Automatic annotation (TrEMBL):
GO biological process, one term: protein targeting to mitochondrion
InterPro entries (alphabetical): Glutathione-S-Trfase_C-like, Glutathione-S-Trfase_C_sf, Glutathione_S-Trfase, Glutathione_S-Trfase_N, GST_C, Thioredoxin-like_sf
Segments passing through the bilayer: 356-376
GO annotations of cellular component type: mitochondrial outer membrane
Domain GST C-terminal: from-to ranges: 204-350
Domain GST N-terminal: 70-151
Name of this protein: Ganglioside-induced differentiation-associated protein 1
Amino acid sequence: MWNFSLFRGSVKQVSQTLSLILLLRKSQLPWLFIVNQANCHQFSSESDSGQAGKQAVNMVDDGTKQNNGNDLVLYYNQYSFYSQKVVMALHEKNLPFESHLIDLTSNEQYKPWFLQINPKGEVPVLQDSGKIIPDSSRIIDYLDDNFSNGNTPRLIPMDQGVQIKQKVVHFRNLIETLNGNVLTVGTLLHPEVVTGSRKIPFIGPVCKQLVNAENNSAENLRKYAELNPESKTILLEKAMNQEKKHERLLDKEEFLKILQETDNVLDEVEKELTQHTEEKKNWWLCTDKFTVADISLTILLVRLNQIGMGERFWANGKRPHLEEYFTRVQERESYQQTIPTTYMFIKTVFISQAPLILGVGIAALVAVIVGGYFVVKKIIHK
């Protein structure tokens, strides 16, 4: 029998090498979104930053955008923690919107045209005709206040009594005390606290690149402040806040306090979910309706799972009701329309690295052919 184990090994090595080259290709790969967005946050701040894909709108003389037909235009990044909240809210409310992807890898959020929209250089930002609304919480409140009738359900229910409304607001505010970007960067600076496996996009050598970007973030903000005089004061303040945040995150004891705060919040969530028995068995966090509190909880769980902290916070029976909730919410259509799949991630990398992939692909094909030739030659001479 012919033995092609050597040939299969060669193919495997080529595949692994190709993957490694793609990961180490350059620092401006799509997964650097998280550090760029984290740089725009203090510990209790709210927004993120991102990249421009195809223009959903046109530039006009005053630096604002002219809508091409859809009233709602969302400037966001599909991997941004705070952007995902708004995207999920839009899908929950069945609201069509124009997507304008902001490229975090090229720091497009600090380009003059975007700083005219949001001087802080942060995403998400919603444009509704002539109105500009920054900050994910403000955007969701704006959508609920202005687009809640017929096929666009409210995310803060007004028809289920004061008690339910207060509970939704309470859990929303409670969960939003946790900053997903701070949790992410903290686990990168203190990898020993990670109890599970990291998932896309936080994989392999990417983590080292993210740490490097985090370390240089304040300096980069100061550079953009000099390049954009009209936003200089705001960007310099962001740089100062970033330095304070970074110093705090470097202190492991301080980060462990943040993890304990996360435990405390999730303990309260688990306690609430435990009460959902009998007629409340199919309830979400606060009611049978999917609310803004569920959006905040869902996006938090997604990020914790991606950075390898699901095992710490709910898996293996630690918080069984929360684990069941996370499994259940992943089947929701708005979740599937919001959270990028592994396929989407690979597609993004492939498109952004097409020239490299083509070159390496040819080299890989040559390697496979040459490897196969020597295997066959060896077999023939036996």
